[in-house]
Automatic annotation (TrEMBL):
GTP binds at residues 51-56, 263-269, 288-292, 357-360, 413. The lineage of its organism: Eukaryota, Fungi, Dikarya, Ascomycota, Saccharomycotina. Pfam families: G-alpha (PF00503). Mg(2+) binds at residues 55, 269. One of its GO terms (cellular component) is heterotrimeric G-protein complex. Gene3D superfamilies: P-loop containing nucleotide triphosphate hydrolases (3.40.50.300). Its cofactor is Mg(2+). It comes from Lachancea quebecensis. One of its GO terms (molecular function) is GTP binding. SUPFAM superfamilies: P-loop containing nucleoside triphosphate hydrolases, Transducin (alpha subunit), insertion domain. It comes from the Eukaryota. The keyword Metal-binding applies. This is Guanine nucleotide-binding protein alpha-1 subunit. GO terms for biological process: G protein-coupled receptor signaling pathway; pheromone-dependent signal transduction involved in conjugation with cellular fusion. CDD domains: G-alpha.
Length: 441
């Protein structure tokens, strides 16, 4: 019998019909497996204007599903936050003078202590106190120049107003030294001349002294507070207040950033990053795109095979202008972007999730910065958070020409506890939608 079976088997091997059926079965099985894998693989695309909070949402996903941040990243954020904190306080001093806000620290007769603190701060060169290569090398330095150099600000102003503006407000030799910056731009970030300067500067003004100066000015100068309350009129880091409140930590050479610091820190995204997680048995790929105008031309490269788009809107920025072009209101820019994406052919079948983000800042600023000043058709009461959020939500929903649902969440992306709930709900929704689309549900 064994012999017969064996003969029958070798007979099958010769049968061209059976051979072709086996080959077909194999292709079919492999297609099935591929399909099954695709159903289990989800691609979530984070989009929105610059600084809206996309990377912060991604950081929360990493905390939830990837065990958080590595040591290198913690060191990087310590460096970046230090540089941003020092420059942010300088910006407040400079802008107060431009806006005609009297500063206590400008008056040595009445406030000698703050006057000295200010002089010390204005002498500080943050790049001399950090390791630029650990902060991100040439990418960090390029970004730093773009954000803080006088030339770069003048360029943006010229673009916005159509004419060059004399840079007012600088005193005490507080010019940005572009030569020093370009020295720092050497590829490896270990420039010997810069290192020498760093050593000399550290001897003259220590990080601790700079941190004390920032802390004192923040706590005791009424003009600095007034200027901060008007920071929608110029460009200031979203988390500047947090940096000032915690500045003494960052001056400590052995300090390692906490999760909260990293969530508050800002490193502009360049290009598109891809991060993979497993949520249950589903493989999630999250694509985080840089949102500033110059970054958007890269977006199209990742528009294919997207399971869901998560559009992040900084709802608090209704009274702020774009960093890239100070003629354009940030909310108007987001409305335009959302309209284009939602109604584009690329996403005609893709679910959209909308995060009304930075609700904490929104709540805090509503009374001092009435929505109607920027959106004259707003009918709600001044300071009414719910009415304000509903108003902006309805503008975004009204752009939907496709009739498909848009899932809206009000978020504070820096708050881990609340984001845990939101992101779990979003992941469940996307998984369900994906199963429905693939005919499993
Ligand atoms: N207070 C507060 N700050 C937030 C919130 N979301 C983000 N931020 C801060 O806003 C800044 C910018 O956030 P990012 O996540 O880097 O913004 P982005 O959209 O990735 O910006 P690009 O990479 O330029 O497109 C960071 O300093 C964040 O800590 C929020 O809900 N509340
Ligand atoms: Mg980003």
């Amino acid at each position: 019998m064994g012999c017969t079976a064996s003969t029958a088997f070798s007979g099958d091997e010769q049968d061209p019909f059976l051979q072709s059926k086996r080959a077909n079965d194999m292709v079919e099985r492999s297609l099935q497996m591929q399909k099954h894998k695709e159903k289990k693989e989800i691609k979530l695309l984070l989009l929105g204007a610059g600084e809206s909070g996309k990377s912060t949402v991604l950081k929360q996903l990493r905390l939830l599903h990837q065990g958080g941040f590595g040591n290198q990243e913690r060191v990087q954020y310590t460096q970046v936050i230090w540089a941003d904190a020092v420059q942010s306080m300088k910006i407040l001093i400079i802008q107060a003078r431009k806006l005609g806000i009297p500063l206590d620290c400008d008056n040595p007769e009445t406030n000698r202590h703050l006057f000295e603190q200010k002089r010390l701060l204005l002498r500080a060169r943050p790049l001399e106190h950090i390791d630029a290569s650990l902060a991100g090398g040439s990418g960090f330095l390029n970004d730093y120049v773009l954000k803080y150099s006088e030339t770069s600000e003048n360029k943006r102003r010229t673009k916005s107003t159509g004419r060059a503006q004399a840079f007012q407000g600088l005193e005490d030799g507080d010019t940005f030294n572009l030569q020093e910056l370009s020295e720092g731009l050497s590829e490896d970030g270990t420039n010997p001349a810069l290192a020498q300067k760093q050593a000399a500067a550290t001897r003259s003004v220590s990080s601790q002294q700079i941190a004390d100066a920032i802390s004192e000015l923040w706590k005791h100068d009424r003009g600095i507070r007034q200027c901060f309350a008007r920071s929608n009129e110029f460009q200031l880091e979203s988390s500047a207040e947090y940096y000032f409140e915690h500045i003494r930590n960052f001056a400590n050479p052995g300090y390692v950033c906490s999760d909260e610091d990293i969530l508050k820190g800002r490193i502009k995204t360049t290009g598109i990053t891809e991060t993979a997680f497993n949520i249950g048995s589903t493989n999630f790929k999250v694509l985080d795109a840089g949102g500033q105008r110059s970054e958007r031309r890269k977006w199209i490269h990742c528009f294919q095979d997207i399971t869901a788009v998560l559009f992040v809107l900084a709802v608090s920025e209704y009274d702020q202008m774009l960093f890239e072009d100070e003629r354009v209101n940030r909310m108007h820019e987001s409305i335009m972007l959302f309209n284009t994406l939602l109604n584009s052919k690329w996403f005609s079948n893709t679910p959209f999730i909308l995060f009304l983000n930075k609700t904490d800042i929104f709540k805090e600023k509503l009374t001092r910065s009435p929505i109607r000043q920027y959106f004259p058709d707003y009918q709600g009461r001044v300071g009414d958070v719910d009415a304000g959020l509903k108003y902006f939500e309805s503008i975004f929903l009204s752009l939907n020409k496709t009739g498909r649902p848009i899932y809206v969440h009000r978020t504070c992306a820096t708050d881990t506890q609340s984001m845990r709930f939101v992101l779990t709900a979003v992941a469940d929704l996307i998984i369900q939608q994906n199963l429905k689309k693939s005919g499993i549900l």
